[in-house]
Amino acid sequence: MNTTDKADQELLDGLRSGDPRKVKALYDAYLPDIIYYVRRNNGSEADARDLFQEALIAVYRKLLDNDLELTVALRTYIQVICRNLWLRNLRKSKRISLQAPTDMVEHASTSETLGLDLERMERDRTYFRCFDKLGDKCKKILSWYFDKIPMKDIAKRLDTSESFIKKKKFECKNKLIDAVHQDPVFKEL
Amino acid sequence: MSSLAEQYDRIERYLQGAMTPGEMDEFNQKLNNDPELASAVTLHQELAETLAGDRIHQFRKTLQEVNANWKPATGGRWLRVLKSPQNLAIAASLLLLIGFFGWWSFQTPSGAELASENFEQLPVQAFMSLDSGDAQVIRKSANQAYIAGEYEAAAEQFEALTELAPGELSYQLYLGVSQVGANAAADAVNTLKPLADGTDQSVKSEAAWYLALAYLQMEEKTAARPYLDQLVRTGGFGADDAEKLINMLY
C-alpha cells in the first residue's frame, strides 16, 4: 500500500477490521457522492449502493492480499471503480450517454492505471449473487471447500460421511455453475 | 460418477495440482483444443478464488447490514449540488434575489397595512336627510355605530337599510365603507364593485377608493390598480392619496 494520507489510512484500517461502525464511516464519507453521480446518470440509489459495495469488496480483497497500491486518494480510487462499473453497465444496457462527471474523478484516473480488472469484478458480483441463492448447507460446504478444508473435516463439522459431502459438494457446485450460466449479466460479459 | 461429476473432479484436480504429470499433459492438450473446457476451468478457478475465505463472506454480511441501516445525511445532497460552479452560481443568484426580495418586502408595507393607514371615514352628512320612518330609525342607529367606529354593527344596519331601499346607492356605499372598516374585505368588494363600475357619479369615485382599499386588504394589488388609476385620471375623490399609493405599490 502506498498511501500517506492519514484519514485514508484510518478508513482503510477500519475497513480491514470489518468493524461495522468503521465500515459505516466509509459509507458516510463516500457513498453520498456515488449516489449523486449514479442518479445523475440514469441510475438509482440502489444501483449506487450495489456499486459501492462492490468497490469496498475489491478494496477489502486487495487489503487481505496486501495488494493495494494507492497512488490516488481512497475517495478517487473508489469513485474510479464505481464510475467505470457504472459506465460499463450503461453501455451494455444502451442507456443514454453519461454526463461529464465534473464533480467526480477529475484526475483522469483510469481503472487500468489503478490496476483494476473491472470485468473480473463484474464476474465476481455474479458469483456472489449466485452463491447467495444457494441454501445454507451448500454455502457452508462450498465456502469450506474453496477454503481448502479437507472433505473429511467438512464431513466431521457437519456430522456426516465424507462420501455424502463429496456428492453434496458436486451438487452444490453444479447448482452454482448453472446459476452463473443463467445469469443475464454473466451472459453479456 | 456421472460424466459431469468426472469432469468437475478432473478440473479440480488440475487446479489443485493433484494430477500426475501424464494426466497434466493430456489435460493441457485438451485445454488447448477445447475452448468450452478452457472456459469451464476458468470458471472453476474464479469461483474458488472469489468465494474462498470466511473473511470475505463475513465482510459481505457486514456490508449488507451496514447498507440496510445506512441513510444519507439530510442536506448532503445540496452540498454536493453546490460543488458544481454552475450550480453554485445559480444558488448565489437565487440567494441574491431572495435577499433583494426580502429587503424589498421589508421596505414595502403590505397592502393590508396601506389600506389600514389610508382608511378614513367617509363623512355621514350626505344621507342624513334622505330617509324617514323605519329607515330613519335604522339610519340613526347605523349612523351612531358608524361614527363610533363600530363598523360591524354599522354594516349590519346599513345592510338592513339597503333591503328597505334597494335603489338608494348611498346606503350601499356606506355599507361598503363599513365593511372595509370592519375588515370584511370580500363583502366590501361585492358591495362596492357595482358602484365603482357603475355610471352614477354621485358614488362612483368614493366607491372606487374604498374598493381599492378592500382589494389591498386582500393583498390583491393588481385588482386595486385600475380603480386607483381611475381616481388619478378623473382627479376626483381620493385622487392624491391614490397617486401616493400607486407610487408606493407599483
From TrEMBL, chain A:
Which Pfam family, just one, is annotated for this protein? Sigma70_r2
Supply one GO molecular-function term: DNA binding
Q: Which UniProt keywords apply?
A: DNA-binding, Sigma factor, Transcription, Transcription regulation
Q: What's a BP term from Gene Ontology annotated to this protein? A: DNA-templated transcription initiation
Q: Where is the RNA polymerase sigma-70 region domain?
A: 26-95
User: In which domain of life is the source organism classified?
Assistant: Bacteria
Q: Which family does it belong to?
A: Belongs to the sigma-70 factor family. ECF subfamily.
NCBIfam families reported in the protein's UniProt record: sigma70-ECF (TIGR02937)
Which named protein is this?
RNA polymerase sigma-70 region 2 domain-containing protein
From TrEMBL, chain B:
Transmembrane ranges?
87-106
For this entry, the protein name equals Tetratricopeptide repeat protein
Annotated keywords: Membrane, Transmembrane, Transmembrane helix
